[in-house]
Amino acid sequence: MSSVPTKRENPMQFDGVMLSPQKEVVRKFYKDMWDHGDIKLVPEIFHDDFTFRGSLGPVLIGHAQFSDYVLWVRNSLENYTSDIISMVEENDQVMGKLHFHGVHRQPLFGCAPTGQDVGWDGVPIFTFDGGKVRDLWVLGDIYGLLSRMQGDLVKRPEFAAK
Asked: Rounded CA gap, 145 and 56, in Å?
């Protein structure tokens, strides 16, 4: 894959861990909703008119658009999993460090299915209002995902430390 081997960080473990109410919503969002495709949880987590800017690019508003996005991603990537590496809470926001991955089974970003486990790193910022998420903004390493799906086209980066 990459010309520089990367060591994956261990995901957080949640058994026996007490989380703040906001962090618990984030855990539920990734581990219960995304990892299992349980879109019935969307109204429990989000306000009706919440805004979402996803790591794969789309800007969406509301439950229906977001639910369609979840189903599209999970259809494209079999065994889709969100590894929560860390979470930080500040007032009405929770930020995280995640690794998203799954088996590439459907066309994605113009890339034919590879049957390979592909993934990318992402940083979500959840903004809460009254216990539910009002806005979710996720920055994702799409270049890294494309590189994995295309067979690591960039063997040598333009910049390399001496």
From this structure: 10
Is the distance from CB of 130 to CB of 108 less than 8 angstroms? no
Specify the CATH number for 21-149; select among 3.10.129.10, 3.40.190.10, 3.10.450.50, 2.40.30.60.
Answer: 3.10.450.50
- Give the global pTM: 0.88
pLDDT tens, position by position, 118-153: 999 999 999 999 999 999 999 999 888 988 888 755
By residue count, the chain amounts to: 162
The answer to whether the beta carbons of residues 47 and 27 sit under 8 Å apart is: no
112-115 long-range Cβ contacts below 8 angstroms, 24+ apart: 114/149, 114/151
